[in-house]
């Protein structure tokens, strides 16, 4: 039974200017949408109508509201460009498939376990847009029901031969089951579009379903006390049967957690506690929790003694939307700050450090060094979250989750906005004694780098190595979607060998670029059993060759990083591009 007796929740106001802020992770956008209806309903209740949204009335009026939606809103499929073909959804496999095509050899000392990746796989053929008398709305590219793709590695003790199985399955949340039962799109898109259409969609979704957006569960996977969970930040985690990939229901930490849950919980070094948080559009904007006896998880700021909170000016503001402004806005001239909170502190114990305005979605690692807390992450000067405000919706269309002009676009190089989106590894040093902040770029401009990872044994501790996916610039420009053409290894204790980078004080980076039109997602570091060094292990990643329409899993030796993968495992079907992946030991079945 999961031990939750040590759960401690703290309320932390992580917003300035009295508005909810999106922090480092791109997926927190979905959290805010699930709760933003509260201030809207409060304002609506002040109107003479005095709307009653009690459960009984919602149940009594559901057919009438459905008929209203059907008559007023027209759903349409968002087109998928040829360069976006592997963002399209696939059918779930739903039963294990034995892999027989392996080029190379799975290393003898590779651990038994499961490599699992989450990502959006929209129902009913893809993302949707709607047209109504109120205007247009459309899904964003980060939406779409979650689908798990899992590769199982099992080694026979006698012969040493490997058995590799592959399976895929949708994460069946309650809203997934609801739309599946209805056999048609039901939730109205409520993120991008014209302000009146978004507000109307918010209200109708809330009246019909009790929430403004679907529980997508499409972002990440993690383990706690031998159990496995799928997560997106607009809802609670879904417990997953790791063998069948069946969703077993919400995990609310035995009734102790009552708000959205981060997609990137972090294991505190030394104690093994799981540090989690949830953000909301209403005060308190952030709640931090510490759960005892937590195993492997990744991608949130912790050190041995502190929780690290980053607060950058990407905001979602319902009041701004009501006034005709954008729901989502990034202001690169606004505030940016990093908060350092003692592990069991409260709101008054958080110490804030002002930093240069930027947008950081992913932290690689944080650690303490002398009087300083060191934070390293992937930093850009603009947000990849798009906004429809200011665009002529009649001359635009949603294409695979991105709003684009209907006019032909000829672009072969980065635009000014693309340059601002360029993501470099960055370091902040926050002095807890003097309050001084030192910040600098760690990498140059050869490649944009995102989706970082480290050896999980070094979470919260000083580490010498890091890994990341490489943005493929031409393919990303052509598709309007991020594509990753390789992986990189970062050497934090070594200086770059190129003269220009040496002058800038940049670190050494090795690149493993894929052949042709091959791109990856969900990369993870797999530590070598009994390894003596931090970088003893492998990078494992899902890849897709767009020329042959073939999906594979690559295993790359991190001590021979630029060499060919030691194994290339061909999968029985196409695996769409997705988000985060992880490698975890498989528990023995009883």
TrEMBL record:
Binds 1 Fe(2+) ion per subunit. GO terms for molecular function: carotenoid dioxygenase activity; metal ion binding. Pfam families: RPE65 (PF03055). GO terms for cellular component: chloroplast stroma. InterPro entries: Carotenoid_Oase (IPR004294). Keywords: Dioxygenase, Iron, Metal-binding, Oxidoreductase. It comes from the Eukaryota. Signal peptide: none annotated. Its cofactor is Fe(2+). Fe cation binds at residues 264, 298, 362, 580. The keyword Cytoplasm does not apply. One of its GO terms (biological process) is carotene catabolic process. Belongs to the carotenoid oxygenase family. This is BETA-CAROTENE DIOXYGENASE. It comes from Salix koriyanagi.
């Amino acid at each position: 039974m999961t031990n939750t007796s040590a759960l401690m929740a703290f309320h932390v106001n992580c917003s300035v200017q009295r508005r909810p802020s999106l922090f480092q992770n791109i997926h927190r956008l979905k959290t805010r949408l699930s709760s933003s209806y509260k201030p809207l309903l409060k304002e609506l209740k002040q109107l003479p109508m005095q709307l009653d949204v009690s459960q009984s009335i919602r149940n009594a009026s559901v057919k009438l509201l459905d008929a209203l939606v059907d008559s007023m809103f027209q759903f349409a499929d968002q087109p998928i460009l040829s360069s976006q073909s592997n963002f399209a959804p696939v059918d779930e496999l739903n039963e294990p498939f034995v892999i027989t095509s392996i080029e190379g050899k799975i290393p003898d000392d590779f651990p038994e376990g499961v490599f699992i990746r989450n990502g959006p796989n929209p129902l009913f053929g893809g993302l949707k847009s709607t047209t109504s008398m109120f205007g247009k709305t459309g899904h964003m590219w980060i939406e779409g029901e979650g689908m798990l793709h899992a590769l199982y590695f099992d080694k026979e003790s006698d012969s040493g031969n490997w058995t590799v199985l592959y399976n895929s399955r949708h994460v069946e949340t309650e809203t997934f089951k609801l739309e599946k039962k209805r056999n048609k799109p039901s939730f109205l898109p409520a993120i991008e579009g014209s302000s009146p259409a978004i507000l109307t969609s918010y209200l109708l979704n809330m009246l019909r379903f009790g929430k403004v957006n679907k529980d997508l569960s499409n972002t990440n996977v993690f383990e706690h006390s031998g159990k496995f969970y799928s997560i997106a930040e607009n809802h609670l985690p879904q417990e997953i049967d790791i063998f069948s990939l069946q969703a077993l229901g919400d995990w609310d930490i035995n009734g102790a957690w009552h708000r959205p849950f981060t997609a990137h919980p972090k294991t505190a070094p030394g104690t093994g506690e799981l540090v989690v948080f949830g953000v909301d559009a209403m005060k308190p904007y952030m709640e931090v929790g510490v759960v005892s006896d937590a195993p492997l998880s990744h991608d949130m700021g912790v050190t041995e003694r502190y929780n690290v909170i980053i607060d950058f000016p990407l905001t979602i503001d319902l009041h701004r939307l009501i006034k005709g402004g954008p729901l989502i806005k990034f202001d690169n001239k606004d505030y940016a700050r990093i908060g350092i909170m003692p592990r069991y502190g409260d709101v008054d114990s958080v110490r804030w450090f002002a930093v240069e305005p930027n947008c950081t979605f992913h932290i690689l690692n944080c650690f303490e060094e002398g009087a300083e807390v060191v934070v390293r992450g992937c930093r850009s000067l603009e947000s990849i979250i798009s906004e429809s405000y200011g665009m002529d919706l009649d001359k635009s269309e949603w294409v695979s989750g991105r709003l684009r002009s209907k006019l032909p676009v000829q672009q072969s190089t980065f635009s000014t906005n693309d340059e601002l989106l360029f993501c470099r590894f960055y370091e902040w040093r926050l002095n807890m004694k003097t309050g001084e902040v030192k910040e600098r770029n760690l990498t140059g401009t050869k490649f944009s780098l995102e989706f970082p990872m480290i050896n999980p044994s070094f979470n919260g501790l000083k580490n010498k190595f890091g890994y990341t996916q490489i943005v493929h610039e031409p393919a990303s420009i052509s598709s309007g979607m991020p594509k990753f053409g390789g992986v990189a290894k970062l050497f934090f204790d070594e200086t770059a060998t190129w003269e220009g980078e040496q002058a800038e004080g940049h670190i050494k980076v090795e690149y493993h670029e894929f052949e042709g039109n091959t791109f990856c997602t969900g990369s993870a570091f797999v530590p070598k059993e009994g390894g003596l060094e931090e970088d003893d292990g492998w990078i494992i990643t899902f890849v897709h060759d767009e020329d042959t329409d073939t999906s594979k899993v690559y295993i790359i030796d991190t001590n021979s990083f630029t060499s060919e993968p030691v194994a290339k495992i061909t999968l029985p079907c196409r695996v769409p591009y997705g988000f985060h992946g992880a490698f975890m030991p498989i528990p023995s079945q009883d």
